[in-house]
């Protein structure tokens, strides 16, 4: 008689199969191809930056593949992934309103912790501890923090996150505890393959609520039914109408024009799109006089060089370089560049763009330079 009876697991699988037949096509139609591609590109850029940060933290080569975007539900995830995961809950506190969850294999978390602790041998057979959860929370804080910086550049506004929280949990337990999984609505799953040298080769999942994902796409692309210029209105009326919608610029405007803050708009509406740069004057610089003999060397060519930064690497590390390798320099973002004349340091400067060319604007002259 036992052979004629189905186990609870078999019943669950049959029920899942029935649900899948009814939901497979429905889920695929929840988001458009444009939304799918846009979310994939957002994930590609943000996780690419996060991978660079993880590589720095672990001092290991980290590779994250192009993301795969799918639509699923919390119920389907519970059936597909019955084993426990480490869930990292990331909430946005500025720029975007929402949260997402990163699901990581428990063994991967143990490996990352052991590397950060400087252990010679990796032990994945041990129990997951609070130290592991704290370590992965800090790692994700750094990774998603750098990711938020990349998103800030994409969305043209400041984006910041709250400190992430990590849990050892199954998807079934997560449906009771995590906001993203509590809903019955579809969930956007963005899957990445993460490889850390020969230590980690597995999948990371980013789960995004449907409305939050569509909100990001709308903020980036603009609402397709809203045009920046409407017939029958003056340019100023269209600008005011556009600002009141608070939906952000259209895709074309995002690509071509910087975001204009409200303070500048109120002061100078006729320059709503482009603000001319204002540079400090150098009128107070003391006049330098030369004798007439300087004319004798005036036609001698001097090679000027601007140095972005330096670093020291071993030959073995350099031999591993390839397309896509990121080399960290000793200069910080925004730090002045060094300017050399025939190899001699003469000044500091900052990068400017003149038409389609880069240039260097001198900000500080080395008065000790003697040639």
Could you give a quick summary of the protein structure above?
It is built from twelve helices and twelve strands.
Please describe the topology of this protein.
Elements: H1 8-28, H2 33-58, E1 62-64, E2 68-72, H3 74-80, E3 85-94, E4 98-104, H4 106-116, H5 130-155, E5 160-161, E6 165-169, H6 171-177, H7 179-182, E7 187-196, E8 200-209, H8 210-221, H9 235-245, H10 251-256, H11 262-267, E9 304-307, H12 315-319, E10 337-341, E11 344-354, E12 357-365
Antiparallel strand pairs: 1-7, 2-7, 3-4, 3-5, 3-6, 4-8, 7-8, 9-10, 10-11, 11-12
Helix pairs in contact: 2-5, 4-5
Plain-language structure description:
With 371 residues, the chain is an alpha+beta fold. The protein has 3 domains: 2-219, Chemotaxis protein chec; 223-271, no CATH class; 292-365, SpoA-like (Surface presentation of antigens (SPOA)), CATH 2.30.330.10. It contains 12 helices and 12 strands. The chain has helices at 8-28, 33-58, 74-80, 106-116, 130-155, 171-177, 179-182, 210-221, 235-245, 251-256, 262-267, 315-319, and strands at 62-64, 68-72, 85-94, 98-104, 160-161, 165-169, 187-196, 200-209, 304-307, 337-341, 344-354, 357-365. Strands 1, 2, 3, 4, 5, 6, 7 and 8 form an 8-stranded antiparallel β-sheet that branches. The protein has a 4-stranded antiparallel β-sheet with strand order 9-10-11-12, with no helix packed on it. Helix 4 packs across helix 5. The longest helix is centred in the first third of the chain and has 26 residues, at 33-58. The model is unreliable at 17-26, 224-235 and 241-271 (pLDDT under 50).
């Amino acid at each position: 008689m036992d052979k004629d009876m189905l186990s609870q697991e078999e019943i669950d699988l049959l029920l899942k199969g029935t649900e899948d037949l009814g939901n497979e096509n429905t889920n695929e139609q929840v988001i458009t191809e444009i939304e799918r591609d846009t979310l994939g590109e957002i994930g590609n850029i943000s996780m690419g930056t996060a991978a660079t940060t993880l590589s720095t933290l672990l001092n290991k080569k980290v590779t994250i593949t192009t993301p795969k975007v799918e639509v699923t539900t919390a119920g389907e995830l519970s059936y597909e992934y019955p084993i426990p995961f480490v869930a990292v809950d990331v909430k946005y506190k500025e720029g975007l309103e929402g949260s997402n969850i990163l699901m990581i294999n428990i063994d991967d978390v143990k490996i990352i912790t052991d590397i950060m602790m400087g252990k010679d041998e990796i032990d994945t057979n041990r129990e997951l501890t609070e130290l592991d959860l704290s370590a992965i929370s800090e790692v994700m804080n750094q990774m998603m923090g750098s990711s938020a910086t990349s998103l800030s550049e994409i969305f043209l506004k400041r984006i910041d996150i709250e400190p992430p929280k990590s849990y050892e949990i199954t998807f079934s337990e997560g449906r009771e505890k995590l906001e993203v999984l509590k809903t019955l609505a579809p969930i956007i799953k963005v899957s990445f393959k993460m490889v850390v040298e020969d230590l980690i080769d597995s999948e990371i999942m980013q789960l995004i609520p449907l409305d939050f994902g569509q909100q990001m796409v709308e903020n980036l692309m603009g609402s397709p039914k809203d045009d920046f210029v409407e017939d029958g209105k003056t340019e100023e009326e269209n600008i005011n109408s556009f600002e009141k919608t608070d939906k952000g610029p259209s895709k074309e405007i995002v690509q071509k024009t910087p975001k204009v803050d409200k303070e500048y708009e109120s002061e100078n509406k006729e320059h709503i799109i482009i603000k001319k740069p204002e540079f400090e004057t150098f009128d107070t610089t003391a006049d330098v006089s030369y004798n007439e003999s300087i004319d004798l060397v005036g036609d001698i060519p001097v090679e000027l060089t601007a140095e972005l930064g330096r670093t020291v690497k071993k030959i073995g590390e350099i031999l591993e370089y390839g397309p896509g390798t990121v080399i960290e320099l000793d200069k910080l973002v925004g730090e002045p560049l060094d300017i050399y004349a025939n190899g001699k340091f003469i000044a500091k400067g900052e990068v400017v763009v003149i038409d389609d060319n880069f240039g260097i604007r001198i900000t500080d002259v080395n008065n000790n330079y003697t040639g």
